[in-house]
Structures are given as C-alpha cells and as structure tokens.
Amino acid sequence: xxxxxxxxxxxxxxxxxxxxxxxxxxxxxxxxxxxxxxxxxxxxxxxxxxxxxxxxxxxxxxxxxxxxxxxxxxxxxxxxxxxxxxxxxxxxxxxxxxxxxxxxxxxxxxxxxxxxxxxxxxxxxxxxxxxxxxxxxxxxxxxxxxxxxxxxxxxxxxxxxxxxxxxxxxxxxxxxxxxxxxxxxxxxxxxxxxxxxxxxxxxxxxxxxxxxxxxxxxxxxxxxxxxxxxxxxxxxxxxxxxxxxxxxxxxxxxxxxxxxxxxxxxxxxxxxxxxx
Length: 276
Fold this sequence. Notes:
Elements: H1 2-17, H2 20-36, H3 46-72, H4 78-83, H5 87-113, H6 122-146, H7 155-169, H8 174-193, H9 197-224, H10 227-238, H11 248-269
Helix pairs in contact: 1-3, 1-5, 2-3, 2-5, 3-5, 3-6, 3-10, 5-6, 6-11, 7-9, 8-9, 10-11
C-alpha cells in the first residue's frame, strides 16, 4: 500500500512541479522571501523567522493542496483510481504530494532567509520541524475539505461553519453575551406563554447563568480549540516551551488526523463525478 501511495503521490508531485501553476508557486515563494526577508536588511529575531515562515507554510500548503486535489479530480485519472484497491490510497497520495510540495517551498524560503538572517540556536533548530510540519499538515487536511475532490453535498459548509462558530464565539464580549442572555430570556417567556413551564424555567436559568459565570466559561470553551496556535506563538516569542505548550504540535496533528479520517469517509462513500 505504501508503495502505491508513494507512486501516485510522485506522479501528482511531478504534474504540479512541471506545470505553470508550480512555476507560479515558486515565483511567489521567491517574492515572499524578497519582501519579508530582504537580504539587504538583517532579520531581527528568531521568533520572527519561525513564525513568519510557519505562516507562509500554512498558506502555501492550503493553496498547493487545492491545486493538487484539482488535478487528482480530473477524468484523466480515472484509470488510476479504479486500479487502486481503495480510494483512500488516492486521497493519501494527494495529501503526501501536497505536503511534500508545500514543505519544499517552505524549506526554500527558510534557506534563503538565512542570508542576513538571525542566529538560530540548537534549541530553535530542534523546535522548527514539529512546529512547521504539524501546522502544514493541518492546513493540507483543511484544504482537502475545501476541494471538490472530497466535498460531498454541504460537507465543506458544515466543517468551515463549525470553525467559524468557534472563531466567532471566542470573540464574544460581555455585551455579546448579554444579547444572547436577553434572547434566552425572551425564549423562556415564549415557552411560559405556551404553557411549557419546564422549558421556560430551563431557558431562564440559562439566561441567568450567561449573565454570571457562564460568559467566561463559554468564551473559554470556544477558544479551547485554538489553544495550540496561541501556545505555539507565545512559546516561540518567549523563547522556550513550557510542558503544556510542548504538546501543541501533537494536538495539531491530532486535529489533522480526525479531519483526514472524516475526509476519507466522505471520499470513500461519495459518487465520483470527475471533471474533464
């Protein structure tokens, strides 16, 4: 199985590398290096080097995956797909090819940025691989859910809708929670008018809870999913990882694993309508 995945991923990798899209990605990578790591000026700190290139890797991984998935979704690959014992192997090949190409672009920027770059300690060099790899892997899997190759029905709307809810939820302040509390109170009054006293009491209790300690608990609940990103950025800026922060890359890989399993389930059970 591993040999088949590597063979298909190599085929997709070469398709992108020797295409106009691949050339554009390489040119954009060089432009990014020239803008954010001007060789005529020294890069200020190691945390800038790690975080900026890490963000570039995530963005590149997302876009590259969309390009690879679009090529894998072409009708010309139909003989390849039907000869594989499992569709998941084809999806895994897309993931490996996308991750390999995006890591290649990221390493290119990292090497060029060492020109007039910061002095990286041994600790920095050991921290970089898990940080960049876990972030790139998560971006690749998220891009798979955005591609037509994996999407089944409204699946991408559900995935990104849930992420948007969590992103919006962590931004809720006291006024936002107050508005939700008032809406819950109105729902409770409506239940009482309908004669549903139990439901009305429950809605009123929720309203009072949101006005009290509930607002802080809800905010922490919504922000918990984004904790790995906050932990990584705080640790890189501080120059050292505390034991809980060191688990952040592993948690990102866990997120990516869960999302890839979901993508595999969608891809394996959908009706394929390959594009010409």
